[in-house]
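User: What would this chain look like folded?
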Amino acid sequence: MPDEEWERFLRESVAGAAGAPVEPSADDREAGQRPRKRPGRPESRGTHGTHPSARTRRGTGWYVAGFVAALAVLAVALFPQQLLGWSAGQGTGAAPLAAESEAPREAPGPEPGLRPTPAEPFRGSPAARWADGAAGITVPEARATGWMDAGQVERALRRSRDFLVAAGLDPGVLRGERPTRAIALLNPHQEDVQEYLRTALSSSAPAPEADPLLLFSRFRPDQARLVGEVVKTRGRLTYREGRSGAVEVTADVTFVYPVTPAAGDGGPDAEVVRTIVRREVVLSWDDPAKVITEPGTASLVSYALDLTNGGCSAPTGYFVPPFGAADEQPSGTAGRVDPYDRSEPVRTRDGTADGCATAIRS
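Assistant: Here's the prediction, encoded as structure tokens.
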């Protein structure tokens, strides 16, 4: 994609979006640790037979990028088919939701029991009221923090959002292409992350800790294709002062991808499955006087993934929507989850032997 087309894509994604201010967290991390000269080695923990579930740990004076793979959830949406008084359109007919300026206190309310269609891929889903693309990612007001003045913080927030767009909304990346623009925003001197990228994007059967889906949204073009051009998003950026005066930006965003089988005709009766991805990514915009970095790039501190309708078996490097299984119950007993509930932290479930849970809706 040429640079001018990419810039137009970014502008159109956020056109008309007014991000509500979000105050940075008051729980600043301790500063004054020994600056990192090179990245630490990633650490993860998990359950044998499932995707490892881990939160990153930070070593003294080092930024540690953990390979975090939350349990992949096989979504079996339990759609009641006989609900009266609801509109037959996309969602409830209510006005679009305001931007998410703080963590919600509860899950979204019930929606009509309507299945998605190629014409209305978000109907029957809370995402019907969400914003499109980058417009659903709230960017807070910038103020001087750590080593940065307000203008520099504003640029760090904008580039953090650009990373999310390049990793989760770029049409080429969604078709399985290399996420070149997203990679260009990561610190090239962070050796463990660069090794992860090389391994993840070159293997046809990546190990769980080297699964590219931990950061990037990808479908095999011969298996699934996006319905229309809209991906619904909801989430926000927050920031605070990190170690050695760095500005640490945390992104917590849910993406909803409506897809249909690639081999289908795309007609009005075509099957539509919504793959729902919630990611929490922490980026550190380091002081170049204290940490080896390059201008315009951030160090990857941690990342976590919660996945619904993307496959729950061994990783393939691509989402695997469960076409033809919308009415089947999974054999797993890892509990019931609501993929639209953003009131709880990103889950890191231990799961069961087969790694499947039941989603109450999709």
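The chain has five helices and ten strands. If you want, I can go into more detail on any region.
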